[in-house]
Automatic annotation (TrEMBL):
Pfam families: SH2, STAT_linker. It comes from the Eukaryota. SUPFAM superfamilies: p53-like transcription factors, SH2 domain. Keywords: Activator, Cytoplasm, DNA-binding, Nucleus, Phosphoprotein, SH2 domain, Transcription, Transcription regulation. This is STAT6 protein. It comes from Tricholaema leucomelas (pied barbet).
Length: 234
């Protein structure tokens, strides 16, 4: 007899997400010579970061992994803590419940369900944008406001939606005549939206978007992602 890799049997497609979470946790955190089915209930956050990064790169098929600032945002989300420093999180451990049992505050889904939605969207529609580092993605709405509020009118960036599973949104700054600034978030685009019209073409269409944060003209940043038929028609 021999032990197999972890297997989860499901009876409906809506169980797929939770099954993937179980297999991921078992693969990443079980001991080689363990008693069958015994897996740690808590793991170091640092180990979780490595696992999420490897999963993201493998699933999206990209060589551009998660960055330090992405881990910081993910830690704030999974621990529901916006006061701790990056170093504070490094010494913490994360539980299975925090990963895929407890519903995120004010949402209807778990941390893993949200992360898996981001994975699926990026794999299907955003791989080239992510690989070109055009999407910050893992960043809070509050921090986006802090970054953009001091920027010129029309500066924008892309972040993964907090409120919708598998959505990417564009945040941009509008500066008034009096110099005051307001940061607006465009309704998130889903994989279905982006299959109808690509992200690059949507950015091209939106006249209020001028420079990708911090200061790259949008045509320079996204020009290679515009639909060539549209460019030819101009």
């Amino acid at each position: 007899q021999a032990l197999s890799l972890p297997i989860v049997v499901i009876v409906h497609g809506n169980q797929d997400n939770n099954a993937k979470a179980t297999v991921l946790w078992d693969n990443a955190f079980s001991e080689i010579d363990r008693v069958p089915f015994v897996v740690a209930e808590r793991v170091p956050w640092e180990k979780m970061c490595d696992t999420l990064n490897l999963k993201f790169m493998a699933e999206v098929q990209t060589s551009k992994g998660l960055l330090k600032e992405h881990y910081f945002f993910l830690a704030q989300k999974i621990f529901n803590d916006h006061s701790a420093s990056f170093e504070d999180f490094q010494s913490r451990s994360v539980s299975w419940a925090q990963f895929n049992k407890e519903i995120l505050p004010g949402r209807g889904f778990t941390f893993w369900q949200w992360f898996d939605g981001v994975l699926d969207l990026t794999k299907r529609c955003l791989k080239s944008y992510w690989s070109d580092r055009l999407i910050i993605g893992f960043i809070s709405k509050q921090y986006v406001c802090k970054l953009l509020s001091t920027q010129p009118d029309g500066t924008f960036l892309l972040r993964f939606s907090d409120s919708e599973l598998g959505g990417v949104t564009i945040a941009h700054v509008i500066r008034g005549q009096d110099g005051s600034s307001q940061v607006e978030n465009i309704q998130p685009f889903s994989a279905k939206d982006l299959s109808i019209r690509s992200l690059g073409d949507r950015i091209r269409d939106l006249g209020q978007l001028r420079n990708l944060y911090p200061n790259t003209p949008k045509d320079q940043a996204f020009g290679s992602h515009y639909n060539s038929e549209w460019l030819a028609a101009e």
